[in-house]
Design a protein that fits this description.
The protein contains 2 helices and 13 strands. The chain has 203 residues and is mainly beta. It has one domain (5-199). Strands 1, 2, 3, 8, 9, 10, 11, 12 and 13 form a 9-stranded mixed sheet that branches. The longest helix is centred in the last third of the chain and has 11 residues, at 159-169. The termini are far apart.
Length: 203
C-alpha cells in the first residue's frame, strides 16, 4: 500500500530484516531492508515537528525529521553523530519514500552507502517524479553520512544501476561537508563512471 503524504508530513521510515543480493560493480553486495517498520517516533513539544528513530542495518540507526517546511533523513552508528540531508530536487507537491532501502556493502559486509527512493506526486495526472538518493556512510567520521548523488528515476530505465555505480565509485571517497551532491538525469553531460575517472588522483 502506498503512503502518500505532503513532503512536510513524512512520518516514518523504518528498516526490518535485510535480504542480501550480489549486484553492481566493484564486487560489492547489497542488503535490502523494508521501509515503514520498527521505528520509535515522537513529537516535538513546542513545534509541529515529528521525529522517528528507526532500526537500520549493521548497527546503524536511520533518523527521520518532518515538519511544516520539509523532511530530512540522517544516519548514526554511535548514537550521536548524524547528518541531516536535503531532499532531492522536488518534482511536485507530495512525497512518499519507497518501500525498500538498499544498503551497499563492501567486501567485509560493512555498509558504506545507502540508496533510497523518493516518489513525488501532484494534484494533476502526470505530475510528479522520482529520485534515488545515494548517501555515503561515515562510521568513523564526525558526522554519520552525507548525500552524494540524486538520480532521476522516472525516465531513466537504468536508474537503479546508476545509483549503485554512484554508491560504489563515488561514495567511498566523497568529501562530506565539502562536495555538493551531483544530479544525474537525462540532461547530464557526464555519467557516473566518467565523473569517477576524473576524480582519481592525477586526473
Amino acid at each position: 500500500m502506498q503512503h502518500f503524504m505532503p513532503a512536510s508530513l513524512i512520518a516514518i521510515l523504518a528498516l526490518a530484516v535485510p535480504a542480501h543480493a550480489q549486484s553492481g560493480g566493484a564486487g560489492h553486495d547489497s542488503a535490502y531492508v523494508r521501509v515503514f517498520d520498527n521505528c520509535t517516533s515522537y513529537q516535538a513539544e513546542d513545534e509541529p515537528v515529528h521525529f522517528s528513530d528507526c532500526a537500520g542495518f549493521a548497527g546503524w540507526t536511520v533518523h527521520i525529521v518532518a515538519g511544516e517546511h520539509g523532511a530530512a533523513v540522517a544516519y548514526s552508528q554511535r548514537g550521536k553523530e548524524t547528518q541531516w540531508g536535503q531532499n532531492p530536487p522536488r518534482a511536485a507537491v507530495f512525497q512518499d519514500l519507497g518501500q525498500v532501502m538498499e544498503w551497499r556493502l563492501d567486501a567485509s559486509g560493512a555498509p558504506f552507502a545507502t540508496i533510497y527512493r523518493s516518489i513525488f506526486t501532484g494534484y494533476e495526472r502526470g505530475d510528479g517524479g522520482q529520485y534515488l538518493t545515494v548517501a555515503a556512510l561515515r562510521p568513523d567520521g564526525e558526522v554519520g553520512a552525507c548525500h552524494v548523488a540524486y538520480i532521476e528515476a522516472a525516465q531513466q530505465p537504468n536508474a537503479n544501476q546508476i545509483a549503485r555505480d554512484a554508491a560504489d565509485y563515488l561514495a567511498p571517497g566523497w568529501q562530506c561537508g565539502i562536495e555538493e551532491p551531483i544530479v544525474f538525469d537525462l540532461d547530464s553531460e557526464m555519467d557516473v563512471l566518467t565523473v569517477a575517472a576524473q576524480r582519481r588522483p592525477g586526473h
